[in-house]
C-alpha cells in the first residue's frame, strides 16, 4: 500500500488557444487595414476610393471574427468536456468522497494513479479514518468538503472562460490538485486583442472589439454621407443674406430666400389665351416673382450719433434732417429656377461710409424674418484721394520726425484711406474635416445637452469648418469692424467629387453649396466679411479642364457653373466679358486685382505644350495683357490671382499631378505671360490648390504666395523642391515652404502711404497661429497724369507758357 502521505495530484492540462490559421491571419490583416483606412479617411484624405474599400474590409473582419469566435468557443467546450467540467455527476462523486462513502463503481476501482487508491481503512493507521492517497496528510491539506465545494463552483461556471479546471475526468472523481484558470486573460493578451483586433477566449472582450469596429464604420458612413443627411442643405430651409463685391460707390447684395411668402388663403387661376382660363390654381402672393426688396440706410458717424440723440431728446428729428429713414432698394427676383438665389446692386453710395441693410416684403412693407437683424458693410475709399493723402501723410511724417514725435500705430485696415488696407486669401474648404469623434450622431446630441462643445465652432457642432472659426476669431470677433476688408477664396469651396460624386446635375452641386452656406462657421464670416472668389477643380470634378482629351466640352461643367454662379459667381465683381467668370477690381490707388479663370478655357494637360496649348484661352489672355498695361503706372501693387500655382516647383515621384494640373504643364503660355509680367513693377501672384504654403519668385521680379487649405487635409509627404520644373535652371526660386497644417490662410497688409516706400506685409496663419511673416518692399510707381492735368499742360504750352529751364 502506498504511503498516504505521498500526494498524487492529477493536474489537468492547461487550455491551449487553437491557432488561427488563415482565418486568424485574415482577421488580423483586415482589422489593421480597416482601422488605418478609417483613420486616413476621417483625419487625412477623404478619398473616393474609401467607399468600397472600408465597407469591404469591415465585412471581411466581421465574418472572420464570427468564425474565429465560434471556433474558440468550440475548443473551450471540448476542453471542458475532456476534463469533466461539464459532467453533471462530478459534484455527486465529490460529495461522496467528502462524506467518506465507499463507491462500488467498477470504473473507480480500476482507476490507477501510481498506486491503487482505496477508501478502506489503512492497516498502517489503526483507529484513524482512511483518506484518499491523493490528499496529503501534511499541514494545510484541503478537506473533501472544500474540494466538493470547489467542484460545484467549477460546474456552475463551466461555460465561463474564467471557471476553475478542477480534477474531474470521465465521470470519475479525482483528487483535487492545483486549480487552473481557463479564460483569465493577461494584460499582454488584452493589448494584443485591442491593437490587432484578434479574437480571444473571452466572448465579452470579443464583443467589445467588434463593437468598436462597428462604431468606426458608422463614423465613416456618417462622414461620407453627411452632406446629404442634414436638413440644413435641403432646398426649403436655408436662407442667407450677405454682401459680396464692394466698390467706393456700390455694393452687391447676395440673397437666398426659399418660398419667402406663407401660403395664401385665396388662389389665383392661370389664364389661357384660347380658353380664357387654364384650370390651374396658384398661390396669389407667390404669383409675384419679386416679393422682397432691399432697404438700406447710412449709419451715422460718432458725432452724428450724438447729434441725433440730442435732437431726438428735444423732439427735433425732422428739423435736424438726419432722421434715420430707410431707403428703398432694388426688388429681388426669387424663383425656383435659380434655387431661390439672387443678387442686387446698391449704387449711388458714398465712399468710406458705413451702411446697414435689411429685406422687406413688398406687399406690406414689413421686415422679413431673414436676416433677423440689420447687416452692415462699409464702402471702399475714393481712389481719387490717394495722391492727396500720400502728400498729407508725408508732411505729417516729416513734421513728426523734425519734432521728435513717434507716430502712433495705425489701423491695418482703415476705412477711409485708399492707400492702406488688408485682405486675406486662401482656398480648399470641406465641412466637418478633419472629423472629430464628438460630431458622431450617436452621442452628439448628448454632448450638446451637457454643454460640451455646443458653443459656436465647438467640437460637437455638425457642419463645422474649423478654418472659418479660426479666421472669425482672429479678424472679426470682438472688433468694432473686421481687421480685413475682404476675403479672396481661390477655389475648391466645395468638393463635389470627394468623397462622393453626386453626378453632373445642378441639384447635386446645389446641395453641396447649401450645405456650405448653412454652416454656422462660414455664416459668421460671410455675414461680416465681404467674400469673393473663383472656382478651381473640385467645384466640378478633380483636375478637370474645359476641353477633354478628345477636344469636347466636359459635360459636368454647365450644371456646376450654374450652381457656382448662383452661390458665388454672381456676388463677384462683374466679369470682363459677357458669360465669362474672370474679372478685375481695384482698391484705391494702391492695388489692382485680376482674377483669372484657369479652368474653363484650359486645354487638356496631355496636349503637346506648344503655342496652341492654353490655360486661359486667347480672349482671357489678351484681357490680362491689356490689364497689365493699364495698371502698370496707375496702381502701385498688382495682384494676379490664379487658382493653381504659377510656379513649377511642385512635383516629384510622390506628387503625381503637381506637374500636370498647375502651370508647369503649360510652360509655353506661362513663358509668354512671364515675359511681360517680369517688367511690371510690384507684381504679386496669389494662388492655392496644393494644400501647402509656399512663397516663391519667378524670374526674380514676380513673387507668388500660394496658400491652402483653409479646412482640408495636408500630406506628410514633401512634394515641393527647387529641382522641380523651372527651378532646375533657376527661373523659379523658393523663399518659404510650410507644408503642415489643416487650416492656412495668408493676410496681406498693403501700405502705400509713403509713395517712395510702398510695402506689403504678409502674415501666414497656420492652425490659428502666425507661422511666418515677411515684408515685401515695392518700387515707387510714377503715376500717369490725369486727363485734365495733361490737357491743361498742353494748352499752356500752346499759349507759349513753357516751363523755365534752370539748367
From TrEMBL:
Lineage: superkingdom: Eukaryota
InterPro entries for the chain: Metallo-depent_PP-like (IPR029052), PhoD-like_MPP (IPR018946), PhoD-like_sf (IPR038607), Phospholipid_Metab_Enz (IPR052900)
Biased segments, Basic and acidic residues type: 101-114
Spans through the membrane: 21-42, 207-230
PhoD-like phosphatase metallophosphatase domain mapped to chain residues: 480-718
Biased composition (Polar residues): 117-134
One Pfam family per UniProt: PhoD
Biased composition (Low complexity): 157-171
Alphabetized CDD domains for the sequence: MPP_PhoD
Keyword annotations from UniProtKB, A to Z: Membrane, Transmembrane, Transmembrane helix
Annotated protein name in UniProt: PhoD-like phosphatase metallophosphatase domain-containing protein
Native species: Pseudozyma flocculosa PF-1
